[in-house]
Model the fold of this input.
Amino acid sequence: MTSAVPLQLPPAAAHLADRPLSRDDAAAVTALMAACELHDVGEVLIEEADIVGDWQRPAFDLATQSVGVLDGDRLVAYAEVYKGRWADAAVAPTHRGLGLGTALSRWTRAVGARDGGTVVGQPVPGDSAGERLLSALGYRTLWTSWVLELPAGQAIEPQPVPEGYAVREPRDEDDLRATWTVNEDAFLEWSERERSTFEEWTATVSRRPGYEPWQLRLMVDASDTVVGMAFVVVSSGCAYVDKLAVRRDERGRGLARALLVDAFEVARTHGGERSELSTDSRTGALGLYEKVGMQVTSVWRHWAADVAPDPGAAPA
Done:
């Protein structure tokens, strides 16, 4: 049985308490991250369904891979590490300067080492206090990400679906599995991670709270084979394109752009008056999004640190 890694609170935070998180904490983590995003980048990007989806992935264990810091009943900081590699952490603006960020950094690296990881990293807003902290702690930047927006009322650059192709919703599990394969194959061309299982993928797509089939846009060829996909969510009037992929041998035909425009248009019929997505420097896709009129609204960087895996740890 995997044992929990204790969080060593700094002296300035000795009045606070810590414990592993549970699924009942999803709303509190969402509120914490929203406060941090509003403070650091000027807008809220997170919603509770994002947290719930991530936490229901089969390989994630809240009891041993998460920690929360509380001031009374209020969650003021948290961290988690997925598969010994992928961390997230946040400290409320009201509780910064106490050393909590440093303590959470040490904790995430210890959890990564315990779970067999060799590198632990997380996304941080550019030019933020969190970025300055991780730089001072010896982390290095692996890639840059951009959040882009198509403002409300702005016309979407038209992109007809090429002849012989069509966009539709998924009909059954076979469609979902075909879409998962296209998505994972495309992302693994540049993402240094292991393939997500179908169950991990559906946790944040078709099993994500509030999911409806219209959110998953399938590009199919004349034989009805899935060759591309987009996944869009709508929250607080914003449509967020969370996934976009086209099979390698089908690229160069305008399918990705057609999927993107379709996702925006469908989302607007479901209340998404403005549209957002994120991309990073590993994909080379920034130009695609700028061509449909999107504008960069915030910059994030993935900071990572090497860790020495625990000799007795199972591979992450």
